Every structure is written in C-alpha cells, then in structure tokens.
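Batch job 17 of 40 flagged for manual review because the log was empty.
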Amino acid sequence: MHYGEFLKKVQDRIGPTQGSAVSDEASRAISVTLEALGECITGEEARNLADQLPKEIKEPLQQASEDAKVCSLETFLRRISEKEGVDAGAATDHASAVMSVLAEAASEGELEAIRAQLPQEFGALFK
C-alpha cells in the first residue's frame, strides 16, 4: 500500500474534523499511533512491520526500543491522547482508524506476530 492510499483510508475513517486540515490530523494520528505501538511491541517486530509499510511512516517503528513495554489498551490510548493533544474519544477513533488500515497494509503473518505481543483487548482496534 502506498502512503497516499494509507493516509486517505485513515482520513476516511477519522471523518470530518473541525479546526485543522483532515490530512494533517490523519498524518499526526498515523505517526503517534505507530510510535505508541512501537512502545508496546519488541524492536524486532516493530522493524518487521515497518518493512511492510510506506517509507513515509516507517520512522516511528524503526525507532522502537528492543524491549517492549507492558501495554494495556488504556495506557496505549492515553499515550496517543497525550501525544496528539486530543481527548480520549478522539484518541480511540484515531487509533482504531490507523490500526484497521494497518491490518489491511501488513501481511496476515505480521499481524499475528503483533497481536501475539499485545493484550487481547487490542483486537477491536484492528477491525
């Protein structure tokens, strides 16, 4: 999947926004969500995922540390909310938009490897 297609799919899932350009909001949501995901999975898995994504969005995953932090869904969404400067509802919407597009962009094997490192409660974000 090319970056433009990834961005458009995230934009479409986020929906209309107020105050900022939709593409800016979607771009920020992608970056912040992938950074937060990179904190929750091992560095090796983050790099494997990055290898399957457009070059424009690889960096947050390539910078992941080797050791994954223990992440609950609540902690993951709170990190996104704080880094994006949005409320909890918007953070959930953004994370869901990015993760569902990620599920389309990455191979099934890679998704299984990522899901294996995350609590089951993350499953809803991939739909």
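Reviewer: the log was empty due to a logging misconfiguration, but the result itself is present. The chain has one domain: 3-126. Unflagging and moving on to job 18.
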